[in-house]
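input
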Amino acid sequence: MEAIAKTKYLKGSPRKARLVIDLIRGQKVDRALAILKFTQKRAAQPIAKCLNSAIANATYKAEQKNIAVDPDDLWIKSCYVDMGPTKNRRRMRPAPQGRVYREQRHYCHITIEVSSDERPASEKQLKTEAAKAKAKPAVENKSGKKPAQAKKVKPTADKEQKVEAVTTDTVPDKKDQEQVIKESTASEKDTDMTTSEEQGKE
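output
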């Protein structure tokens, strides 16, 4: 939902009004009103009135279309100041060295557009998101060590036999179990004997 409000023939030069308008561009409505409240410029009060008018236009437009709009969700989509007419007054002001300056009174037109649509990400937000994305892998690899991988252990022949005996589909008999246990103990003894002989030779 979008709505526009305009203030025409506002006293003051457009250059001075733009100093205030630039403060609230792209801001949320409540934050913009707070900024205008504490800005010590003559154009701040009429700009705040124009902004309140834009908020009222948005809520009225939403009611006409039977859409629920929360005024706190509105944000300033665009705002700008155009040059108005210069008051044609035949008056002069004294200037140095006997010269005269012509007096001109400027007017300006203010336009504010508010919207309830989702705001696009600003350049600052995109930069912070990119910095966070870069910082995550840096924090993970800060120690400089690679993540520990599981070591692959090759099972010995004796262990393979035990695994085969346990993983058979049919449940072995007691005699078969006893034979497997005897074979495994015998192979363990043989390995112990060979290791002791090798140590003796050394």
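quick obs: The chain has a mean pLDDT of 80.
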